[in-house]
Structures are given as structure tokens and as C-alpha cells.
Amino acid sequence: MNRGFVLKGDICDSRAGGALNTVQDGYVVCVDGISQGVFHELPEAFTHLPLIDCSHHMIVPGLVDLHTHAPQYAYRALGMDLELLDWLNTYTFPEETRYGDLAYALAQYERIAQDLRRGPNTRCVLFGTVHLPATELLMELMEKTGLITLVGKVNMDRNAPDTLAEKDAQQSLSNTRLWLEHCKGRFTRTGPILSPRFIPSCSDQLMEGLAELQEQEGLPLQSHLSENPKECSWVGELCPASGSYTQAYARFGMIAPGRRTVMAHCVWCKPEEIQLLKESGTFVAHCPQSNANLASGIAPLRTYLREGLSVGLGSDIAGGAHSSIFRAMSDAIQFSKLRWRLTDDSLAPLTVAEAFYLGTRGGGAFFGKVGSFEEGYEMDALVIDDSDLTTPCVRSLEDRLSRIIYLSDERQILHKFVRGERLF
Ligand code: GUN
Ligand code: FE
């Protein structure tokens, strides 16, 4: 196979360390789904490839949503007067119970699939529900979108209504093994991710079993960590011997070097927890809009970047109402400014370039070499017609990128490529 093409246009991507790279009227070359780099002049070696002329349009890497919940799409923007635990009990658990009905699941999952295909995200890490048939259906629909996704069958065997919780650890684990069996060899773009909901939802026995599965099968794992003050206190009561919320996961081996784990939120982590996240290479999915909506707080992103943690952005539907990671970028910038002004003026707010990095290359690293056009990176790209967003005040490619981050929506996305395949 030697399928390749060249995109010509105005290019923005992030380099190692987060520096913004901009090339006006340049070229990105893709061969076999892999970027060959960004060029001012097209090298002779690539002049035989078909050229897709997107002159005057912006070309940026596809966006990465490191944390969201597909079954919560239908109740976005509802229950926004509640905090996390009341919101889970009042909205989330009753709604997720409905996914035991496959016809209901199909109707709702088709809507999120359609919207994700059209939107700017090219990679997503998703929670499903505890239900096997509905989660497999979600995976089939995600596969058809052309996006590359990791999808989780949720594990929960305590502190949830009987209609939703699994009977016990044994049943939850055997369901998970069966689901993994069903996934084998079935998809090319969609993979399973282990998904213990969070410490309050999972017994020790269940966590031990999942950690063992993670190690044996080399599987990725996602969960929630240190999101909301009341939740953190509850975890302290549930696990008095752990010493911290992060340790409550680490004692099972889920937060440890060599594990591929992403933890959503990390709003209230203490210095020793931050060190543990760093040393273990655990990814943090920063979900600023959800953290505001559920009155959880503002994560110390400047500290995480300074410490060199692996960080990306998450929409956390339905804590967040918007699935676009462009929106998560502008939210991350704005909330970092409020944190700086109100909480700690030694922690500088995020720049546009940093937020762009987090939503592309930062989160992309969870998938491998993803989120940049640097040579060797998988070619996820958006071609954006930002002519309607351009005014006499816009002076540079960085200005255009800022307008796109704050103001664009899916109507401006002309073309979308995932690992070199054109979706539209
Ligand atoms: N913690 C446990 N479950 C959830 C969830 O569904 N959403 C959010 N935001 N936090 C959680
Ligand atoms: Fe979440």
C-alpha cells in the first residue's frame, strides 16, 4: 500500500514542548496514513502525489477528546443546578439505566455518532454503560463514524440503584471478559478500554480483578479522580487506609509505570498525588466545562504542565454540554485565568498555543504519535474554511487559530481526515 496525498494551505500544529508551528501557504504530506512533515516548498520526492488544494484555508490536526460519556449526550445542559453526587443520582444513573433497552440505546447513540462524525474531534475516549449489548452497539456505531475511539463498558458493583449496578464483582468481571472476547478482531478503529466508574462505584474485589485484567491483557483503563470536594471526602471515608484518592487507585496497580491509564478531572490532587501521577505516566483528562457546571473547581493546569504530566482535554458530556474540543480549549484558557486571578497568582494562565497543544498533541499522546503533523505522526487533519471568521483585525495565522478556537463550529469544517482516510 502506498496511498498518499498532499494538502496545501495555511498550516498550524504543535511541536514537542507545546510550541506553535505555523506555515502559510505550505504543504502537509501523508503517505500510508502517516505524516511526512510540513514543508514551505513541496519536496521533489512528493510531487507525484495527488494534491488537495486547500489554499487560504486552515489545516490543523484533528482534536482529541480524552474523556466523555456517550450515554449522557441526551441530557446535556440538564441538572446544571446540582453538584456531582446529586447530579449522578438524579440524572446520570436513571438515564444510564435506560440503555438496558437496545432500541433506546440505538436512537440516542446514533445521534452522538452523527454529531461526532461532523465535528472537529478525530479521536475520543468514551464511557458507555454497564450494558454489554448497548456498549457493543456503541462500538459498532463509532466504528462507522471513521473516528478512532476507545470505548468502555462501565464497571460498577456498589452505591448505585439495583436497576443499574452489577450484582457483584464476579458478575461485573465475567461480563467484562465476555465483552472483551466479543471485541476481538471485530474493529479496525475502535478498541476496548477498561472503565471502573470511580472508587465509590467499585468494590475492592472488582478493582483487583480489573487491575489484573489490565496487566494481563495490556489494556488501557479510564476512570475519574479527585473531581468534586464532596466526592473526595466520600472516597476518604470509603478508603481510610489509602491516604489519598490517587493511592486508592494506585494500591491496585492501576496508577503505576507501564500502565496506560487516563484519569478524568484531577482537580484537587495534593503534591504527593501529582508526583504519583507523574512517575506513573498517568494521563490527566482536564475537563474545564464540566468542572464549572458541577461546581467541582478548577484543576491546576499550570502546575501539571510545569511538572511535566501528560495532560489532554475532555468534554465530559454531560458534565460538559459541548463535545467540541475547540470549546474545551477556550474553556481551559478562561478558567485558568479565573484560577490565576482568584486563587493563586503565581500560576500563570494558559495561552492559546498551550490550550491548542493540550487538545491535539497532549491528548493525542494517549493514542501514540497523534495530534501533530511532525514527521511520523498519524495523519488526523481538519481543513477549516475560516473566511467568515476573518476580519481586518486578524493579522497572523495565530490570530486565525484563536478565532477558530473561540468562534468556529462544524459548519466551517470542509474536510476531515483520520489516519490518512478522508471522512468528507
Ligand atoms: N464520576 C463518576 N461518574 C461520573 C460521571 O458520569 N460524570 C462525571 N463528571 N463524574 C463522574
Ligand atoms: Fe466523566
Task: Give the helix/strand layout.
Blueprint: E1 4-14, E2 20-31, E3 34-39, E4 51-61, E5 63-69, H1 84-97, H2 102-118, E6 121-127, H3 132-145, E7 148-152, E8 154-155, H4 169-183, E9 190-192, E10 195-196, H5 204-217, E11 221-225, H6 229-238, H7 245-250, E12 261-265, H8 271-280, E13 283-286, H9 288-293, H10 301-307, E14 310-313, H11 325-342, H12 352-364, E15 381-384, H13 397-407, E16 413-418, E17 421-422
Parallel strand pairs: 1-4, 5-6, 6-7, 7-9, 8-10, 11-12, 12-13, 13-14
Antiparallel strand pairs: 1-2, 2-3, 4-15, 15-16, 16-17
Helix pairs in contact: 2-3, 4-5, 11-12
The chain binds guanine (GUN) and fe (iii) ion.
Q: What would you say this structure looks like, in words?
A:
By secondary structure, this protein is an alpha/beta fold. It folds into two domains: 4-62 and 372-422, Urease, subunit C, domain 1, CATH 2.30.40; 63-367, TIM Barrel (Alpha-Beta Barrel). Helix content is 37%, strand content 23%. It is built from 13 helices and 17 strands. It has helices at residues 84-97, 102-118, 132-145, 169-183, 204-217, 229-238, 245-250, 271-280, 288-293, 301-307, 325-342, 352-364, 397-407; strands spanning 4-14, 20-31, 34-39, 51-61, 63-69, 121-127, 148-152, 154-155, 190-192, 195-196, 221-225, 261-265, 283-286, 310-313, 381-384, 413-418, 421-422. The chain has a seven-stranded mixed β-sheet. Strand 6, helix 3 (132-145) and strand 7 form a beta-alpha-beta unit. Helix 2 packs parallel to helix 3 (132-145), helix 4 runs parallel beside helix 5 (204-217) and helix 11 crosses helix 12. The longest helix is centred in the C-terminal third of the chain and has 18 residues, at 325-342. It starts with a strand and ends with a strand. The relative contact order is 0.16. The mean pLDDT is 97. The site of guanine has 11 residues, from helix 1.
